[in-house]
Specification:
Layout lengths: L13 E6 L2 E6 L9 E9 L2 H9 L7 E5 L4 H4 L8 H9 L4 E5 L12 E6 L16 E5 L4 E4 L3 H6 L20 H6 L11
Parallel strand pairs: 3-4, 4-5, 5-6
Antiparallel strand pairs: 1-2, 2-6, 3-7, 7-8
Length: 195
């Protein structure tokens, strides 16, 4: 039985990750210790459906850190990304080193897959996540709290920030009524609240 003097986990199963990609939170309480550090090439996606399609096509059968950007509060209001856990979990079960980095959210559904979520600054604000390219080597280290892309600093500074067409996220079913909120929302790490 856990006590205050001898807790189940000293950090409550949550850690902050920081580095040249930004600042994120990771829930590690259900992640096995041998998955707390993942260093692998990234595959970039701007939608969670893109990740599912790549998985179904066998394009993710490797050590990989899936990056799902343009999912933050200013992009599209931070939809729940829990649909990513099953395919990434399957890859992990196949023996691959797998992780997720996103400026979006997962409400406790990341499970056994290491997932750096709520990354700030988000892609829609020109955050470094929008500089990542397919094949970049990234280290997600939940032990030291590091989230780093291995690109030469001078090259990283010169690298262009990618933008995305977010129009499909901003129309239909009344979503257009929320455009002023997306424009004025604070960052995920400060609560994603309207200023």
């Amino acid at each position: 039985m856990a006590t205050l003097e001898k807790p189940f986990s000293k950090d409550g199963g949550l850690k902050i990750l920081t580095g040249n990609i930004g600042r994120a939170v990771i829930k590690i309480s259900a992640v096995k210790k041998d998955h707390h550090v993942v260093e692998a090439p990234v595959k970039i996606f701007d939608t969670q459906n893109g990740i599912r399609e790549a998985f179904e096509a066998g394009e993710l059968d490797m050590d990989v850190i899936a990056v799902c950007r343009f999912q933050g509060p200013r992009s599209n209001g931070m939809p729940e990304l829990h649909k990513l856990t099953p395919p990434l979990g399957v890859l992990q079960d196949r023996g691959y080193k797998v992780a997720l980095i996103t400026d979006g959210r997962m409400s406790g559904a990341s499970g056994k897959v290491p997932a750096a979520i709520h990354l700030t600054p988000e892609a829609a604000d020109g955050g470094p996540i929008a500089k990542l390219r397919d094949g970049d080597i990234v280290r997600l280290d939940a032990v030291t709290g590091e989230l780093k892309v291995f690109v030469d600093d001078s090259d990283w500074q010169k690298r262009e920030v990618i933008t995305a067409d977010l129009s499909e996220n901003q129309f239909g079913m009344g979503v257009e009524l929320l455009s002023s909120l997306r424009t004025n929302v604070s960052t995920a790490d400060t609560g994603a609240s309207v200023l």
